[in-house]
């Protein structure tokens, strides 16, 4: 019998032996100890990759022959592991630093100390890291600082479509690099594209750009001309990218999502991969796996092993269940070497404090009638289906419950338009700017019509091409006093520091959405002494119930990230708690 060094895609070593039940049972025992995914039989050889297994084989069979190339490979792995431990100590030292003397030649402007530390962290990690600072702490400037400091030649930024213009402006602000926003009309002209250093693309276009080949264009003479258009895989064939930045990385948490698969394919071709997220939606540790896999496939390559260890993975009635959490302290320790998150309260002491003002609103007569009707519909529905267990009924019930709850919330939002109007007018009279957020478009559209000359608006309906202009006007035009925005569609990726006032017309199912939206104002560049946040809620309605729940329960979205054990963050629990409060009417 013999152990040889014979590298394949997933395995480096092979155990050769003449068949016997004794050896077969030994292999099965080892397989159970290390996990079934660690081995494979190929060409009548037992394949594996973990050098520790060599020691187990030697113990069981002292006379086993070991090829010299195996010993060399094992020694190299030991050296790598030792260097990894040294680097981890250095990374911990960097993460605990308060001051930094880092100088980045060619970088415009001066970074804060904690931002320089972020760049140092990425440099030591060779640009493979997860930067999950709270919104407003300058993650984009830190990642650009890395690109300049590391001398990266060609970089790709993947981000939501709405923030592509913001990335272009950040690149112009902090670096001398030339950037281009990619879309389906971008022509793959090597001479033109070779002039650019940073390419910006949005997540939802990734699959399209992989598939697009040629399009037909009508020329001025009326002839049809076939034109080759941009293909992302062609771009990677033309240029050697050395850095990929994935902004709002929580968008690639789903393993099966197309954008996740495309990002993984691209990351395989790039040396440095930086994931950015301000409010990572880590309701469950399983949602962290795809990001870890993109950063370090060798360490985080097996979903089943990961979920079994950290997500309480087990076989249940409907198959593999892994929505839980387990061994979180160990998980935090293991991800620490390439994971960095700072909170504003810890590093951004220069930012102004936030003041929250809760304003109860009495619904008008017509709104009360509409609300009471919607509430009766919900209570009757809960009474009708109480105790029903059939799976199909349960699925349809969940959708109907959400529709009925949303009907209640929509009614209260419409009932707060007058109160919001009064606050807006008062702020305008005092020559102050204000942001107004709502999860619904209609109340924003009604208010926008009234304040149209002195306001701008971004909702899910707003074309991407118009969003940058709206932000620019609000930030720089003294006559534009009001910004109306969807809590979700305008709550990320933009800077609105011209205002120091925020009005929330309603509450989102996802509490983290509010923090994201508020951080459009509460970020670097804010000159106000204080940020004032007005939270409107309809008295004695679903609004008040949501407000109470959000205050009494810690719906924390980043369980693993901030080292907390509270797993009650997901919106399903908020919805469930609300439904319980209405179910209590049926006694």
> What is the total tally of β strands?
22
Unreliable segments (pLDDT under 50, ≥5 consecutive)? 214-218, 554-570
> In CATH, what is the class of the largest domain?
Alpha Beta
In the CATH classification, which architecture of the largest domain applies? 3-Layer(aba) Sandwich
Overall average residue pLDDT: 83
Helix count, per DSSP? 22
Structural features:
globular, seven-stranded parallel beta sheet, Rossmann fold, 22 helices, 43% helix, 587 residues, six-stranded parallel beta sheet, alpha/beta
Polypeptide structure, described:
It is a single chain. The protein is an alpha/beta fold and 587 residues long. It has three domains: 2-78; 100-301 and 337-347, Rossmann fold; 354-583, P-loop containing nucleotide triphosphate hydrolases (Rossmann fold, 3-Layer(aba) Sandwich), CATH 3.40.50. Helix content is 43%, strand content 16%. It has 22 helices and 22 strands. The protein has a seven-stranded parallel beta sheet, sandwiched between helices. It has a six-stranded parallel beta sheet with strand order 17-22-21-18-20-19, with helices on both faces. Strands 3-4-2-1-5 form a five-stranded mixed beta sheet. Strand 21 (501-504), helix 20 and strand 22 form a beta-alpha-beta unit. Helix 5 packs across helix 6, helix 15 (365-384) packs antiparallel against helix 16 and helix 21 (542-552) packs across helix 22. The radius of gyration is 28 Å and the shape is globular. The chain starts with a strand and ends with a helix. The model is unreliable at 214-218 and 554-570 (pLDDT under 50).
């Amino acid at each position: 019998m013999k152990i040889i060094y014979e590298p394949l895609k997933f395995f480096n070593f092979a155990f050769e032996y003449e068949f016997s039940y004794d050896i077969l049972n030994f292999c099965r025992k080892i397989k159970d100890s290390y996990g079934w995914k660690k081995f494979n039989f190929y060409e009548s050889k037992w394949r594996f990759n973990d050098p520790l297994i060599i020691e187990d084989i030697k113990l069981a069979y002292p006379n086993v022959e070991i090829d010299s190339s195996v010993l060399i490979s094992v020694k190299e792995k030991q050296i790598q592991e030792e260097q990894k431990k040294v680097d981890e100590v250095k990374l911990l030292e960097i993460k605990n630093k308060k001051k930094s003397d880092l100088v980045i030649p060619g970088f415009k402007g001066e970074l804060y100390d904690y931002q320089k530390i972020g760049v140092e962290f990425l440099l030591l990690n060779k640009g493979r890291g997860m930067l999950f600072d709270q919104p407003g702490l300058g993650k984009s400037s830190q990642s650009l600082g890395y690109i300049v400091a590391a001398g990266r030649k060609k970089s790709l930024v993947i981000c939501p479509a709405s923030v592509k213009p913001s990335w272009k402006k950040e690149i112009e602000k902090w670096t001398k690099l030339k950037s281009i926003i990619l879309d389906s009309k971008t022509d793959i002209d090597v001479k033109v594209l070779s002039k650019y250093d940073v390419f910006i693309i949005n997540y939802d276009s990734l699959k399209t750009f992989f598939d697009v080949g040629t399009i037909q264009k009508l020329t001025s003479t009326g002839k049809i001309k076939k034109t080759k258009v941009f293909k992302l895989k062609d771009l990677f064939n033309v240029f050697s990218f050395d850095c990929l930045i994935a902004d709002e990385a929580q968008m690639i948490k789903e393993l099966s999502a197309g954008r996740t698969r495309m990002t993984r394919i691209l990351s395989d071709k790039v040396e440095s991969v930086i994931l950015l997220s301000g409010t990572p939606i880590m309701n469950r540790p399983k949602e962290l796996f795809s990001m870890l896999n993109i950063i370090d496939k060798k360490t985080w390559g097996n979903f089943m092993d990961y979920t079994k260890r950290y997500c309480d993975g087990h076989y249940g009635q409907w198959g593999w269940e892994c929505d839980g959490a387990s061994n979180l302290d160990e998980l935090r320790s293991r991800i620490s070497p390439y994971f960095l998150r700072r909170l504003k309260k810890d590093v951004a002491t220069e930012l102004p404090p936030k003041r929250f003002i809760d304003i109860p609103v009495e619904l008008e007569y017509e709104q009360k009638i509409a609300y009471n009707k919607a509430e009766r519909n919900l209570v009757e529905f809960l009474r009708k289906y109480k105790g029903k267990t059939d799976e199909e009924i349960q699925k349809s019930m969940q959708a109907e419950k959400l529709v009925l709850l949303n009907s209640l919330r929509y009614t209260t939002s419409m009932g707060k338009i007058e109160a919001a109007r009064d606050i807006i007018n008062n702020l305008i009279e005092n020559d102050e700017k204000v942001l107004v957020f709502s999860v619904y478009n209609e109340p924003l559209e009604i208010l926008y019509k009234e304040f149209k000359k002195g306001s701008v608006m971004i909702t899910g309906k707003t074309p991407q091409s118009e969003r940058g202009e709206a932000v620019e006007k609000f930030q720089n035009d003294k006559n534009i006093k009001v910004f109306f925005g969807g809590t979700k569609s305008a709550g990320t990726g933009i800077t609105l520091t011209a205002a120091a006032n925020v009005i929330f017309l309603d509450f989102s199912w996802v509490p983290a959405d509010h923090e994201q939206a508020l951080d459009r104002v509460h970020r670097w560049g804010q000159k106000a002494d204080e940020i004032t946040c007005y939270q409107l809620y309809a008295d004695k309605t679903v609004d008040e119930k949501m407000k109470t729940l959000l205050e009494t329960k810690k719906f924390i979205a980043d369980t693993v990230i901030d080292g907390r054990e509270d797993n009650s963050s997901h919106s399903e629990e908020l919805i469930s708690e609300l439904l319980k409060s209405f179910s209590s009417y049926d006694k």
